[in-house]
Write a structure and sequence with these properties.
Length: 153
């Protein structure tokens, strides 16, 4: 899908029923399994935050914090976070967040997953381009990851 300087968009057809894809994106433990976070025992609840260490080799020292925005069963899940917040010496808490939205729709042969991460134009200019570039590549990889996860579980 297209990209602007403010938003990353991805779309994917998953060969699984919407209920299966919904569990993979809205159940914290399942989300963590394909996304690379240790979210065992945690829940995604609108208005609450969830944090976890990243589980990718070499990145385990970093914590990912997500503020759950909306959870609309089997159709819409969104959260806010600080994009590419990977320097442990930097306090990102005063920076604006981006909004990650995942929309599910029935489609021939399965479920269409649309992902939009928006708000990059509000990120401080000194790190905006790198955050956008890294998250863009990250979402490409994560689309492959969720497809594999849903197909194998």
């Amino acid at each position: 899908m297209s990209e602007s300087t403010d938003r990353i968009e991805r779309e994917l057809l998953l060969k699984a029923p919407r209920s299966r894809v919904w569990r993979a994106v809205s159940t914290a433990e399942e989300f963590g399994a394909w996304f690379g976070l240790n979210l065992a025992g945690k829940q995604f609840v609108a208005g609450e935050s969830v944090s976890s260490n990243i589980t990718f080799e070499g990145w385990e020292h970093l914590v990912c914090e997500m503020q759950i925005d909306r959870v609309e069963p089997e159709s819409y899940f969104s959260y806010r976070w600080h994009p590419y917040a990977v320097d442990p010496a930097v306090d990102y808490s005063q920076e604006p967040t981006t909004l990650v939205e995942i929309v599910l729709e029935d489609a021939d042969g399965g479920t269409r997953l649309r992902l939009v991460e928006s708000g990059f134009d509000q990120i401080p200019v000194e790190r905006r381009a790198e955050a956008f570039r890294m998250n863009s590549g990250g979402w490409t990889a994560q689309m492959e990851s969720i497809a594999k996860y849903v197909d194998e579980t």
